[in-house]
Amino acid sequence: MKQIIAGILAHVDAGKTTLSEALLYSSGSIKKIGRVDNGDAFLDTDAMEKKRGITIFSKQAELQFGDTKMTLLDTPGHVDFSAEMERTLMVLDYAVLVISASDGVQAHTQTLWRLLKRYEIPVFLFINKMDQPGTDRETILLELKKQLSDGCIDFMALGAGTEEEAQENEKSSTIMEEIAMEDETAMESFLETGRIAGEQIREMIVQRKIFPCFFGSALRNAGVDTFLQGFDRYTLAPEYPDEFGMKVFKIARDEANNRLTYLKVTGGTLKVKSPLSNADHVRFGEEVWEQKVNQIRIYSGTKYELINEADAGMVCAVTGLDHTYPGQGFGIEAQAETPVLEPVLHFRLILPEGVEPAVMLPKLRQIEEEEPELHIVWNEKLQEIQIQIMGEVQTEILKSMIAERFGVEVSFGPGKIVYKETIADTVEGVGHFEPLRHYAEVHLLLEPGERGSGLCFQTDCSEDILDKNWQRLILTHLAEREHKGVLTGSAITDMKITVVSGRAHPKHTEGGDFRQATYRAIRQGLMEADSVLLEPYYAFRLEIPEECLGRAMHDMEQRNSRMDAPQIENGMALLTGSGPVSKLSDYQKELNTYAKGRGKFFCTLQGYEVCQNQDEVVEAIGYQPEADLYNTSDSVFCAHGAGYLVP
What we know:
globular; 647 residues; alpha+beta
C-alpha cells in the first residue's frame, strides 16, 4: 500500500474536524461519527477543545482505504493557533483544504493557500456544507478559480466508480478539457485521444498545476466516499532516499508527563535504541548532545501502538529525547525555516503572591516547547515575564494549561503590540573591538529590503582583506540572535545586511571578538540610519446587515484601515480590507453591540507595514538606545596597554 501523510486545513468553523470524523468513519477506522459540538470527536480529545468546540492542538489518525494507508494530521483552524498548523506543513505529502460552501474563500483561507504554495504542497479541496440553502457548485467553482487558482477543477465525476468508468462518463470530457488547459503535454494527449492518462493527472497534481475539488456535506457523510476514492486514485506515493533523515514538527507530553517528539522519517529507518545527536546542526548557544530513542509510538487519536522501527514516510512520536524542538532536522534533513506567522501581541504575566518568577520560568519553557506560537521573554530591566502570542483566545487557553499542569492561577496585564523596526536609507555600520590582546573589526552595509522579506545576510568582501573563515563567522553572528532597533528596542526586519570589509589580527583575534565587533557594527549602522517603525496589520472580512454598512465603513476609516468596495447580497453587506492590529483587535465587541449579534468579523495576520503613529508610539515606549548597554553601538580601541570606549 502507498503511505501518504495528509494534513487537513481550514478556516475556523469550515467543518474540518467533522470531515476528519467522516473520513475515519467511511474508511472503517471508527464505528460512530463524533461531533465537535457534543464534545465526542475522535481527534478533539483535550478538555479545553471539548469545552470550546475548536481544535487547539494538531492530532494524528491512521486510516486505510483502497490502496492507500493515510496518516491524517488534523490541524487548528483558529488564527490564534496558526503556528501549530504551519509546523505540520513541513511533513505533509498532500493537504486537504476544507472550504465552507456558505462562507466561501475567507481571508484566513487565502493565508493558508499562500503557505501551501510556499511549502509546495499538492492540494485537494473539499467544499463542505453543500446541504445548506443557497449553495451552488458552479458559483463556488468560479469563486475558487478567481480567488485561489484556475487549476481548481471539479473532480466529482472522476472520483466515482473505476478509473475506466470515470473516464467514460459524459461529464469527464469537459473535465479532461479543463485539465488539458493547464498543461501542454496534457493538451497534446487530449487532442490526440480525447483522454488524459491517470498517471499524467497524478503528476499534474503533484506539480500543483491542478487542484481537484470535491463537494459534499461531512455532517451528513455526503460526498465523502467519492472524495476518498478520488484521493486514492489521484495521489502518488513519495519516494525517499536510503540515507537516514528525520524532521521534528511538534513537542508534546502524554498523561504520564513523558516528553514526546513528533517527527517524520524522511529517509532510511529509525529504530528503537538508535542513538541520535544534534552534532550536524548545532544552533548558537546549544550544547552538543546524544540520546537514545526509548519508544516509537504510532498514534491514532489518544491510543497508540508501539513499533520497533519506523520506515521512511512514517509519522511517529518518540520518547527519550529531551532537547529536540519543532523544525529540527537530523541526518540529511536541514533545519526548517521559522514560521511565517509570528506572535503580534505581548502580555505581562502576573503571578500570584509567593510564586517566584525564577521558579515559574522553567515550567513555562516546557509549555513553550509544545506551543510554537508562544514566545516567553524574561525582561531583565522590568524583572517580569512577558508572553508573546497570536491573539487573546490563547491567553485563556494558556491560563487553563498553567492551572491544570502546575496548579498556579496566573493572570495577564493588558495586551500590547509587538512592533518591528527597519530602515529607510542605506548606511555603513562599523564595529571595532580591541581591548588588550583582542582584535576584530567589521564593516556592514545595511540596506532597506522589501516589506515582508525579513533579514537577508550576505558577504561581498575580498578574501585578500578578510579570510573566508572570519567572513563565515560574521554571518553566523548576524543570524544567531535577534538584533534590536534603536527607536523602541523592537526586533529589526526587512533589511539586507552585507559584510563589506573587516580586519583580524594573526595572533590576537579570537572567535568571540568578531561577535562583539559584529553586534556593534549593526548597532552603529542603525544609530546612523533613518529608522522606521513597523506594526502588524490584519486582513479583515466583515459581514454585516446592509443597514449597518455606513457605520462599519466609518469605523474602519477611523481605525486607519483600507477597504475594498463593499458587496451587497440578500440584505447582507461584505466589507474586506486591511488595518493595524492595534486598532482592530477589539472590534468584535463593538460590532456585537451595534449589529445586535448579526455581524461577523474575521481577521488574519497580513504582515507588517509602516506604523501610522510612529512618534506617539516611540515616545510612549521611551526606549533609550544609548542606555541599552547590552546592545551597544560603542567601539572599543586600545592605547598604551588599556582599552577605551569610542561612542
